[in-house]
Design brief:
hpI Integrase, Chain A; DNA-binding; mainly alpha; DNA_brk_join_enz; Integrase_catalytic; about 55% helix; Tyr recombinase domain-containing protein; elongated; two-stranded antiparallel sheet; about 300 residues; 3-stranded antiparallel β-sheet
Amino acid sequence: MGSNSDEIEMLCTPPELREIAKTAVTKLLPSKSKSKYEKEYDKFSTWCESKNVTRITENIVLAYFEIMGQRKKASTLWSSYSMLRTCLSINKNVDISKYLKLQAYLKRKSENYEPKKSYVLECEHITQFISDADDITFLAMKVILIIGYCGALRRDELTKMALNDVDLKPDMVIVTVPKTKTNISRVFMITEETWITLIRKYIELRPSYTSHQRFFLTYRRGKCIPSPIGINKIGEVPKNIAKFLKLPNPEKYTGHCFRRSSASNLANKGGDLLTIKNLQDGSLRRLLSPMLMLQ
């Protein structure tokens, strides 16, 4: 399907360097999502075989996305494009980022697309929930809210948080976020006295016989049990907080809520571009910047 220039290049490479190059190629895909990339590439390859495609051209790729675009939303098309661009570059030495008609097509498909964004919890919502909700029922949700909001965390970051990631000091809590989606570890502090007290209370309820290091344990009627809280349950916490506060459309408060709420409230409090540049998380900087531009 592609040109044989990459094969010629490999033949001109000394055998010992050829093996090193092959090993390097296997590491080019991101390890966390490697299977997704390979699945996307296999899907495209199968389609090409079914259409008797012998050479990859812009028209071929454009036709593929046109067919896929009849049943897929714009965000899915862009995701597929990104993965396919990487895989074709690695496997076929084809650079589809140079396909201007394809770029124009994808941009046109995005024009009327409205991405679904989580609603945000305002500062007063957070204060009200922590103040009004009883600890017997809602302590775990309070701690998830506090840590998730203060760190602008994703639900998978909260799920994977370990006990040694939370350092409880007399006057602060220091939280380390291990490398996740952005491959950058982060550290943030919680200094609000009431919030520190709630985190300490939750940690002290941890059973001594817990056999794993996951920080968030299932909480029932004032007690923790060793079973860790799963990613779906953590993702439902914003919705359940909204239900408690009787906010409209609680289902709109999704697993991205804490991250968006943190960014939104920072912008509303007058966070500037210098503050954003000092953030270690690049995706959070991108989330914040448009909000500040609107001020």
